[in-house]
Design goal:
CATH topology of one domain: Immunoglobulin-like
Number of strands: 18
Mean pLDDT: 89
CATH architecture of one domain: Sandwich
Shape: elongated
Largest sheet: 5 strands, antiparallel
CATH class of one domain: Mainly Beta
């Protein structure tokens, strides 16, 4: 067997087989389907998109409820304000997401891909728009094969136009999480949109259009790494979409209600609908394949066919490799799904999640950093007292302005040179110069530990006890 490079026009010699290095894409016209799993998929489409498109418009404390303000370096999530110092929480959220992915995959395969992945969600939306404008599978195939005419131009123009508008709105929504949506909307109408906002609206909109409208299954087949390493998270007790070949083979067509055994056939009537509804164009009857995204469209359509033929449902179903081989029932399947691996994943996931919740609930609403003035180590002032100067960086994490009383302790007769009351606006960091004085007899030469106490005047729970060093010349 020899291989020829793409574009090689030389004919193959007799007896040789010429294979292209690249598989030519055949456009997939997925058939629409209804059923339990399709309903769940659309429930998640609505849920995720209502969250995505709706959150930027929600208000909380006279501001956008969810806003990642990169300019001010603050993340607002409803009543929670996260600062750069809180990047630890972001790391924990990423760990939780990874463990959740491992858990769901180990239990039931590619649930994320089939129901919640943005590629799946937007492809589903774009395909729905295409179906409403151009018709179902057969009508779309005929339209593709038809020559360009006024009707085809009108239908394609409507479809592409709606796709473009939806894609741009998706890009606008993404940017609205980083620039307040009302500001962004006013800038668009006033033609004063900044360069980075313009770039990301059009870039994300273009990628949405390209991935969901044009490339579709190619993203899952060739670009997504998850499809390549998912097999390492599967085991014989993982629930996956499976064709029961023992029950379905041999395939063959027959009239409705005919007992398959009477004609020497299995339950599969070889209608091909499971292939027609598959968004990646695979035949699930050939076994589990990495191209399968676990959407269960084939399960829904096969159950409908079984109903029409008066056969039991479940020829294609969620089951495990062991259950299919050993003909287990539901009780045995559930018992083996709850295996040690799953229990360990679940325990770790719950522990990390509880830790995150506890950490956010006990996150400090007041933070203080004390920095000595390095330009002046120590100096003698009026009355012979020794003075050290400090800079207090006070971070008010709450969304209310607070007045804080500052006091100092640690040496005899230690005091502040001026009134120790400072005011910090909501969600703001302010820096204050503070002079601390002690009598010369309060301590010997060298460095001594002192403490700053910063307390909110209206909330006794907002208090910080911070250590510092006082130098005696």
């Amino acid at each position: 067997m020899s291989e020829s490079a793409p574009g090689n026009k030389q004919p193959a010699k007799q007896g040789e087989v010429v294979e292209s290095l690249y598989k030519k894409r055949q456009k997939i016209h997925a058939r629409s389907v209804t059923g339990v799993f399709t309903t769940w998929r659309w429930v998640l489409v609505w849920f995720t998109q209502l969250l995505y498109y709706g959150l930027p418009w929600l208000q909380w404390n006279d501001r956008q409820a969810v806003l990642f303000d990169l300019v001010e370096r603050k993340f607002y999530i409803f009543g929670l304000v996260l600062w750069p110092q809180d990047v630890f929480y972001l790391a924990v959220i990423l760990i939780i997401s990874a463990y959740a992915l491992f858990l769901f995959t180990a239990v039931a395969g590619r649930l994320w891909c089939g129901y919640s992945c943005p590629q799946t969600v937007y492809t589903e939306i774009f395909m729905w728009i295409e179906q409403k404008i151009e018709g179902d599978r057969n009508a779309r195939i005929k339209l593709d094969q038809a020559p360009m005419n006024a009707r085809k131009l009108r239908l394609r123009g409507m479809k592409y136009g709606i796709w473009v508008l939806l894609s741009l709105w998706t890009g606008f929504t993404l940017v609205a999480y980083f620039t307040p949506v009302t500001v962004l909307w006013d800038e668009i109408w006033a033609w004063t949109l900044g360069p980075w906002e313009t770039f990301w609206i059009f870039f994300y909109g273009f990628m949405t259009y390209l991935f969901a409208g044009i490339m579709r299954e190619q993203v899952c087949l060739y670009m997504c790494p998850y499809a390549r390493f998912q097999s390492v998270m599967f085991d014989p007790d993982t629930l996956v979409i499976t064709y029961d070949s023992e029950r379905g083979e041999p395939r063959g067509q027959r009239k409705k209600g005919v007992d398959p055994k009477s004609v020497g056939k299995g339950d599969c009537i070889d209608c091909g609908l499971c292939v027609q509804v598959c968004p990646t164009g695979i035949d699930i009857r050939n076994g589990l394949q990495y191209e399968c995204i676990g959407c269960a469209a084939c399960v829904d359509v096969c159950d409908q066919v079984m109903d029409k033929m008066n056969y039991p449902k479940g020829l294609i179903r969620y089951t495990t490799e062991n259950a299919l081989e050993k003909r287990w029932g539901r009780k045995e399947i559930i018992g083996h799904v709850l295996r040690p691996r799953i229990i360990v994943y679940t325990t770790i996931l719950i522990a990390i999640t509880l830790g995150l919740v506890w950490g956010l609930a006990h996150k400090a609403d007041l933070r203080v950093n004390v920095i000595r003035d390095r330009a002046i180590l120590a100096r003698e002032v009026e009355g012979g007292q020794i003075e050290n100067v400090y800079r207090l960086q006070v971070m008010n994490v709450t969304e209310q302005a607070h007045r804080y009383a500052v006091s100092v302790s640690g040496l005899d007769n230690i005091r502040l040179a001026e009134d120790g009351v400072i005011e910090v606006p909501p969600a703001t960091t302010k820096s204050f110069a503070v002079a601390v004085r002690v009598p010369p007899e309060a301590a010997g030469k060298g460095s001594h530990t002192i403490y700053f106490d910063v307390k909110a005047q209206t909330n006794e729970h907002l208090a910080v006890h911070e250590k510092a060093t006082f130098l005696m010349p």
